[in-house]
Amino acid sequence: MTRLRTRVSRLYSRDGFRGPVVTLLSGTAVTLVLSYLAVPILTRLFTPEQFGISDYFVMMVSVLVTIASLRYEDAMMLPDDRARAASVFRLALLLAVATSALVAIATLWGRELAAALRVEAVAPWLWLLGPTLLLMRFTRLSEVWLSREKAFRTITLGDVANKVTMLSSRLGAGAATTLGAGGLIGGFAVGQLASGLYYLTALWRSDTSPLRTLPAPGKLRFVASRYRRFPTFALPSSLLNSIVARLPVLLLPVYFGFEAVGLFGRAFVALAVPLSLIGTAVSQVFFVHAAEAYREGRLAPLADTVHARLVMLGIFPTIVLVLAGPQLFEFVFGGEWRIAGTYEQYLAPWFFLSGVASPLTRLFDVLEQQRTELLISLGTSVALTSALVIGGQAGDIVLTIGLIALAGGLVRLLQLFVLLRLADVGLRQALRPYLRYLSIGVPLAVPVWLIKEVWPPWAVALTAAVVGLLYVGIVIWKERLLERR
């Protein structure tokens, strides 16, 4: 037991790469467990259409948050000097306040805006866009600063505060009010408020807080000019990426209504959300270490290791959802959500590749290859928009889901290839983790495939959970993950 405790304690070391990632993933694990416990209740309190309206609001604020500070926050990691990094923080915060104020003014004409977008059902809640945008942007700026300071435990607690508050607010609204989609939207906003207040308190108490000094106009002008590549190239790319990632939520209601958006959203939540939470945790640490590794000439092994670990984490749930998505969705969410499991069978490979590629996109910033990122984003937007329009015009939702999954997956493969080439990781080395973990995961998932049409959904889910634990045990043993590396 002493030896086991020693090995586990090493996982949370503040040094190196693995300790901070595991610290962040600990909070992610807590929020994921709470989310998966809450989702079966929420899907029985709210309809697919209400989820669709809420998902559309979240899509809007998520796109706006990309441009709120012109991507200057990503330059915060680059200066060796903390004072210059603090100036970048203050510049980004001032831009976020100005953008949120403009959005708040624009929502005074919310009904006209919703009518122009043909989403009138969202109009009653558009007044929340400005405040929610500011809270989300401040949270993101705080996380980047705390990552630079390697205060990963503080980030973990902030994320837990966000998710716990959001879930409890949504559950309370669903059980005690008749707000409908407003209960989901309000819960999301309250979660952002909780994390924003937590980070504000943490930063204010810190001796190195960038909030303790008023911004100096001269320094703000200097950092705005010095890091102008971020708004010039990274901002358009980031905006395109944000829109592309949410194109289905943007266009599906135009062709198929908000119920289709709600079903797609639950398919997204089942795999893409947990992978994105893991990816966010990895990305925050990877950005710090990648910048250091690039300066020291050891970027290739770091990128290769991170890529392999991301493949290891995401490949098995992807296999299981491709094999038995409808049965698992029926058990977890309820019978009316079974069709979302069918969507998941098409979408899971795309979501998996997105979860692998997303943290590695920090390489574009570290290597200052924002033009390359912009070109890939343009290609992605064209491919996904074409797939959505072709499927929408055909009037076939399953065809539409299949086309966007194919287009998205192919573009993500291209992006991964470019990223790993930029980091000097060879093709053979890049393919190795896929072959390795497929050889472990596919045989373990065969029982799930064999029983899915014979046994009831609860038995399929139980079998998937058992073989999932076996996969985790085998990977821990083969990769010696509890040993000091």
List the helices and strands and how they pair.
Blueprint: H1 2-11, H2 18-45, H3 48-67, H4 82-106, H5 110-117, H6 129-148, H7 152-176, H8 181-205, H9 217-226, H10 229-245, H11 247-256, H12 258-296, H13 299-333, H14 338-360, H15 362-366, H16 370-394, H17 397-422, H18 427-451, H19 457-479
Task: Walk me through what this model shows.
The protein has 485 residues and is mostly helical. The chain is built from 19 helices and no strands. The longest helix is centred in the middle third of the chain and has 39 residues, at 258-296. The two termini are 20 Å apart.
- Give me the number of helical elements: 19
Order of helices and strands: HHHHHHHHHHHHHHHHHHH
Helix content estimate: over 70%
Instruction: Give the CA-based shape.
Output: globular
Query: Roughly how many Å apart are the termini?
Result: 20 Å
Q: What's this model, at a glance?
A:
With 485 residues, the protein is mostly helical. 82% of the residues lie in helices and 0% in strands.
Give short descriptive properties of this protein.
mainly alpha; 485 residues
